[in-house]
Structures
1.
Amino acid sequence: MPGTDNISNSPEKIYRKRVRKITRNFFLHIHSPRIYPFSMKPGYTFGLGIVLGFLFLIMIFTGVLLMLHYTPSVESAYNSVKDIVHVVPGGRIIRNIHRLASHAMVITVFLHLLRVFYTGSYLGGRYVNWIIGVAMFVVVLFMSFSGYLLPWDQLSYWAVTIGSNIAASARELTDLLGITGILDIGGFFQRLLIGSETVGQTALTRFFMLHVIFLPLTLLVLTAVHLWRIRKEGGLSRPVAISSRETDKLLAWPMLMWVELSIFLSVIALLVLFSFFIEAPLLEPANPSHPENPAKSPWYFLGIQELVSYSAFAGGLLVPVLFLYFLVSIPYKDKEEQYIGVWFSGRRGIKVLLYAILLSVFTVCVQVFVMVRWGWLRNWFPDISQWFVMLVNPATITVMIFAAYSVYIRRKSGSSRMAAISLFTSSMVALIIFTAIGIWFRGANWEFVFR
Ligand code: HEM
């Protein structure tokens, strides 16, 4: 009938149809049917959260395929992985994609955390999601770490052995107090992780269960709550000026779906492309009596391993715990909502950020230089008490300098947000430098090497 087309395509009908597309679909309804144009700016989120979600899905999919051929026993794990690489059709590529996706997830979760912090997106009642995010950050690290052991080759065996020694770091303190015999906290954490004093079948079974069931399920639940909270909080963070302008909202369908689809396809395309060139390593089968030298933990824990080389307790327990405490406490200490949704909180924040970067580079590099060139307390005073070595080393000094500087910034600027930017930035830069030292500048016997 003439005119019917006009009625069925009236703006109101199209509007309702598009809203229904989102709300009636089980998978799509995690999105709000209407979104702020600001949230679609690529330079605001960089799509990092979505990339993370897709990487997680790809890891589950490739992980299930790998599991069809993998055997979690010390006798056959190595050979089953070798078969996946050399015998199973497409096995090599699937394994490469799985490994690449896991490294990409660690890097992306770190970048996502930086973007959320620097846009002040924990403000405006978003503190619960920030804390859930910190938990997700830890779970992502452990998901990757637990997968590390599964190939049961020299690399994985010694990396996890180092990881389990880091878990036992509290022993330095309990040994000094002379109470390890009655209260062995380090030993408790080590046994919790690997089931005994050394990495063996119990550790492999534990890591397998963590990697394929416990941690993915935990991450799945946390992701669901994370996304639900974003909807409950009225969408992504945005500057205060935009908050009330409801009329600016866009319909999510179909534009957001096209954007997400193109991100998804790009992530897959990149992973497939790189999987042809970057091989997941598989060294000789694990040999517990022949340590690798240097034995290194996975790269994302090398910053901690570097700190542990100064003091087990300070580097393996004290500093990581303080760091997590700091991350969790940020939204409780800083409530300056005027900075929400503004990258680096404007010019003043950028200035604070640059000074914090300089401070961090200077503090870490000077101490490492002194240590490499002239040694540290134990070299200067061979009989010095271990208490001094544990409490006065580059790990603890760095923390104290950063904390003191952020208190100074707080007083000088009168702003908790500026103090948070200072402490967060200096800590992150130090973490990156210590990790880089661990990756590129440590050789046999953990000697400093300059290639
Ligand atoms: C596997 C881990 C994670 C996944 C899958 C994930 C997913 C997402 C997604 C899809 C978004 C919305 C889009 C975007 O911001 O790109 C988001 C936002 C958010 N994420 Fe995450 N995230 C993860 C980890 C984290 C971490 C480590 C933190 C911080 C500690 C965090 C805190 C937040 C917050 C506060 C928001 C709201 C941001 C805003 O309102 O602008 N997330 N996340």
Note: Residues 201-232 form the longest helix (32 residues).
2.
Amino acid sequence: MLGNLAAYPPALVLYMRQRVVVDQATGCWRWLGNVKPLDKRGRGGYAGVYIRLSGVYGRLAARLLYEMIHAPVSDGLELDHTCQDRPCVSPLHLEEVTHSENIRRGLFAKYERRHQEAMAGA
Ligand SMILES: [Zn+2]
């Protein structure tokens, strides 16, 4: 894992590097750049890249870092946060899955969160 960094402009690599801090407890990479707030329906919450360089403006930081450090995402696949932490941008916490698998995991994660909240409140 140290794939394509050299293929990207040094200014972009620096921009990304300066905005990542590792959470020592979880191993998640915290993004110091823009994170889209959750909307009323719980959508959003992902880290975004807003530098006008190499056509990356408005891209998801996690996906871009995955492509830079690991490899391009295969056709037809999506990246799933295995840590269930949407703002996390660690390529180590991303896994390529199909859309339906991503949905399935998301639904179960939502169920588990609700269950835990209910147990905590009981
Ligand atoms: Zn993570």
Note: The first helix runs from residue 10 to 18.
3.
Amino acid sequence: MAHAEWTHIFHTEANNLLHGDTWHLEFNSSIEPEQPEYGWKEYIRNTSARFQCTQCRRSWPSNRVMVVFHMRLIHGKGTVKVRRFRQNCKMCTNAPMEDPSIISENITTLMKNLVKKIRIKCYNEDLEKGFHHPRRFDVKSPHEPEHCEACKKGICTRE
Ligand SMILES: [Zn+2]
Ligand SMILES: [Zn+2]
């Protein structure tokens, strides 16, 4: 369900900008940040999202939600692997890691940034730096590094 929405928004944002090549996007939770496989380019972006604990149903917002993209273009076929970094509940013991729930507006922002990055990294287009910012949430409690996958990997945004 999330995947269909991401794919739809990606193709909408990529429309006519990716040189007529065919691109597809897939979720892949096994790609490693800062270690793209040979021939793959990387893009790491922060977004805002909500999480919900599947054990106690508690939910919380976060402005430090990392998304890693690995992309490759070969013979007119492009692939983007997407990994969304998870968080888990600080109240439950042995709480499972949860995927972020990202609103359409923020997926759109991520896809605009991604398409621009693909144009720069895979097509060597000379575009200006800068990126679109996500809609941020009102987060009251401090970020919890021990409950954040990206912090454990050392790639979480610093504020
Ligand atoms: Zn919980
Ligand atoms: Zn973190």
Note: The first helix runs from residue 2 to 14.
4.
Amino acid sequence: MGYIKSAALDETGFVVLDSYNEEIDPQEWLSIEYVDWKSSGDTRFAPLASAKGEIECNGFWNHTPPRTDKDGVWIPEQTEKAPTLTRRAQEPGSNVGRCRIIELQPNSYADALYNLHQDDNNRLNPDGTGWVVRGFFNLTDDKNSYFVLRENRTDPSIEYRVALPAGAQLIVDTQRLWHAVHHDGDEPRYCLITSWESGPELDAYMEKYHAVPTAPQFEVSQEVLDAGQAEQARRDAARAAYYAAKGKAAVQAMSEA
Ligand SMILES: [Fe+2]
């Protein structure tokens, strides 16, 4: 049968929407509660919706009973402090799974390459239902930061680098594309991440905001690109050696960006 997917995501695995250009009070993301949750890089997360409405970030498949990344339960003590963000996550009208704000500390391009991962949003997702993809709304104005998206984690030949100024809005098939962010700044980056079920509602939302499966490439010198690639290979080898010494295979998949 297969999953219901968005045709708009076929080409590259991501789309960029019109930039969101309304002011949001930073207290919406600064006054809510964060939990330490090790993801790709030095991160914390503030959930707006979670598996059971509690302030925690575990994958829904790790709860009892385990389930896929759908039917997230809104957390009133968080959403009442972040009404605009909550409305934006609910705007498409498609099923919402996990919804949370990520706080990412500054890192390097090489860190981002090492952190590249695929999400497992569709674990336990019933065949014949909508494929879970993720929306990313950048909240802080991170003019020197960018998303790194690859079809293949270690192959730089397909690499999209999407700028992340305030208001940048992307929808990414994060189970297909390897992804991470290079955040260049003095302060943490904040971004709203929402798991949405693909279907007619999400398609209409993408159309409304003129989704395009491409973005101007954030310019980076070849020297930095090459150094990043070499550093990723070096760290991968070190990691594989570490796990080989313990008699285990290194596991690359993580669940967050
Ligand atoms: Fe991710």
Note: The CA atoms of residues 243 and 250 lie 6 Å apart.
